[in-house]
Amino acid sequence: MIRTLEGIGRIAVELHAAQFETKEARRRYYARCRRYIDCFTDGILNAGEPEFHRVTKVPYEAFIKARKHEYNIKRRLGNAIRSTLNVTTP
């Protein structure tokens, strides 16, 4: 049981790091969006602008990747907790 609890602790620490990375990726993406809007528009963004999508593609994809990674770790943590509960309850 201790080994299982240690595993849950490791996953929880991993989740904490992933949540931080998701927040940072979101911040970088929003900063790139804001910089584009400030430099190339008059404050109003046309959502279909191909140049906007080209400029923000890399930070957006990094944000999506970080968000998916965080979701997967949350799922693993939930599975590990449920597995431990199933083992330890009579």
- Average pLDDT across residues? 91
Number of domains: 1
Query: Which descriptor suits the 3D outline?
Result: rod-shaped
Low-confidence stretches: none
Biggest pleated sheet: none
Radius of gyration: 19 Å
Number of β-strand runs: 0
Query: Structural class, judged by helices and strands?
Result: mainly alpha
Count of alpha and pi helical runs: 2
Strand fraction equals under 5%
SSE ordering: HH
The span between the termini is 14 Å
If you had to describe this structure to a student in words, what would you say it looks like?
- The protein is an all-alpha fold and about 90 residues long.
- It has one domain (about 1-85).
- The protein is about 85% helix and about 0% strand.
- It is built from two helices and no strands.
- It has helices at about 1-40, 50-90.
- Helix 1 (about 1-40) packs antiparallel against helix 2.
- The longest helix has about 40 residues, at about 1-40.
- The mean pLDDT is about 90.
